[in-house]
Amino acid sequence: MTDEIAVSVTNLVKKYKNVEVLNGISLQVYKGEVFGLIGPNGAGKTTTLRAISGILKKYEGDISIFGYTPEEAKKLGYISYMPEDAFPYEKLSGIENLEVFAQIYARGDKELEKEFLELGVKIADLGNKIYEQTSIYSRGMKRRLMIARALMVKPRLAILDEPTTGLDVESTVRVRRIIRELPRSINTTILFSSHNMLEVDFMCDRIALINKGKIVEIGMPKQIAEKYNSKNLEEAFLKAIGNDKSIS
Ligand SMILES: Nc1ncnc2c1ncn2[C@@H]1O[C@H](COP(=O)(O)OP(=O)(O)OP(=O)(O)O)[C@@H](O)[C@H]1O
C-alpha cells in the first residue's frame, strides 16, 4: 500500500426519481489497498461501485480513478468490474470463458494473453473442471471463475460486488484468501462490497461502513471496533447508526 490515491470519491449523490439513494458519499482508496464497502441491504453499495466503475453515468459529485474519470479509466483498461450477478457463458468451458476476457484485455499481445490465462487458471483453482462446460459448475465454482476473470488481467483497480455472498464455507474461505493475498503480487487495488461485517476484519486494510446512502465510518476494522468499544464490527456498526439498544 502507498500514499498514492487510486480512487477518490467526493460528495457523490445519486437520485432515482428525486429519491436520494446516495447522499454525499466521499471516500479515498489508496493504491495497493484492499478496501471494503460494508453495509446492509439497500445501503447503496452497488450504486457506489457502479458509479466508480463507469457503468452508472448520471450522478452528482466527483469520481477520480488514478486521476481519470471512471469512463476514461475504463477505456484505458484500468478497471475490472465484477457485478454481483456476474455469470460465465454457460456454453463455454471455464478456460474458454477466461480466454475471451484475456483476449480483450491483452489487445493483440499474445504473450500477455497467455500470461493472463495462466494466472486466471491459477486463481480459479478448479483443477480439470476448468476444461468442462460451465453449465455444470456449482455456484461457488462459477463465482471463483468470475473472480479469476476479473483479477487475472492485473487491473490497476478491481471492483468486486459481493464476491462471497451465497457461497459455502469452503468457497468463501478460498475467495477471501484470494482477495487478501493476491493484490500484493499483481500490484492491484481491490475495492469490494459485502454485507457480512464479520468477514472483513481478515480481508480489508480499511473499510467504509455505509448506511442509507451515507458513510458512517471509515478506517481500519480494528480501529472502528475500538472507537465504539465493540467486540466486532457488527456491534460497532449498530452503535455508529445509533441503534445499539438491540445489543444485550
Ligand atoms: N435502478 C434503480 N431504480 C430505483 N431505485 C434503485 C435503482 N437501483 C437501486 N435503487 C435503490 O437504491 C438503493 C441502494 O441500492 P443498492 O443496490 O446500491 O444497495 P446495496 O447496498 O448494494 O444493497 P444489497 O446489499 O441488497 O445489494 C436501494 O434503496 C435500491 O432500491
UniProtKB/TrEMBL annotation:
Protein's name according to its UniProt entry: ABC transporter, ATP binding
Keywords for the protein's UniProt record, in alphabetical order: ATP-binding, Nucleotide-binding
CDD domains tied to this protein: ABC_DR_subfamily_A
GO molecular function annotations of the record: ATP binding; ATP hydrolysis activity
Pfam families: ABC_tran
Domain ABC transporter: 7-237
Keyword Nucleotide-binding: yes
